[in-house]
Amino acid sequence: MKYVFYLFYFLAGMLTSITLVQSQAxxxxxxxxxxxxxxxxxYGIIGSAIVVAMIGVQLVKGRRSLEGPExxxxxxxRTWTRYVVGGTLFGLGWGLAGACPGPALALIxxxxxxxxxxFAGMILGTWVYGLLREVLPx
Amino acid sequence: MGAKREVKDLQEIMTQLWPWYVSGPLLGLIxxxxxxxxxxxxxxxxxxxxxxxxxxxxKPAFFQYDWRGQTWNLVFMxxxxxxxxxxxxxxxxxxVHLNPTVLERLHAWGxxxxxxxxxxxxxxxxxxxxxxxxxxxxGGGFLIGFGARYGGGCTSGHAISGLAMLQLPSxxxxxxFFVGGLISAWWIVPRVVVWLxxxxx
Lengths: 138, 201
Known about the structure:
The complex is a heterodimer of chains A (138) and B (201).
Chain A: H1 2-22, H2 28-35, H3 41-60, H4 81-97, H5 101-109, H6 114-132
Helix pairs in contact in A: 1-5, 5-6
Chain B: H1 2-14, H2 20-38, H3 46-53, H4 71-90, H5 100-109, H6 120-123, H7 131-150, H8 155-164, H9 168-197
Helix pairs in contact in B: 8-9
């Protein structure tokens, strides 16, 4: 039964990346256009995604999930340094590379192997964060 | 006859740009869908940590946990790659219609008009012959990976899922995603693009 759910998660991933590509949210050009305030398109995507997700979360919250466990919303820790510094660093990379992790994976599948190098950089950055975690202010 | 027309309509939909009011809600639906399936949180960059946790040798405490418990997310990630492969067949190759002012700026940096989803001047496999492309890709990726884990999430975990769950920390993170993104787009990207495609390797 567990393996059926893996199929569902796989299909959910496919739906996500097909949408990222067909809406051009995975496009380097669209990310530059967004940060240059050149079009509403990306703001519309992110904004409407948040609204739909918010309504959806309210509908499923507290119910039982199909796999069994109760659907719970975990509150994120309220320390601020990490969100300010980490958020800024992530944003620098997002603007520079013109992709965040999801679109990068979609483009790897779409036949752009250079994004494998970008992805390797992401793993490297994650590893170095793991090394420095104890000494970084959170 | 009717069925034939429907197939044609579907083909047409699949090969056109999906407007924001279709694609945004579809992406938003992923959040309650994952919760409803198995109380799972939409967060793509967490997989980067799970990949580090797969390393069998010595590793920082941050990666010492059983990544097998997060297999669902790794499977989701493989779905992202597979979906990108499917979408590559559907994608209309010539249709990133940019704001003319933005396009003019890109031309001034030396980039041509969009013919594919991403600029081949920066991402075609042939650019990997230059060390500059490696520095750009590894450097950009490093910032994304380091920043996502330090900040506790990326666009999926904070901007979509976190805000939808009314998490104040996510709002702070998203504001600073934009601070970083604006600095990149206005100060760093113009210089880096000229550096990458201007001179020889």
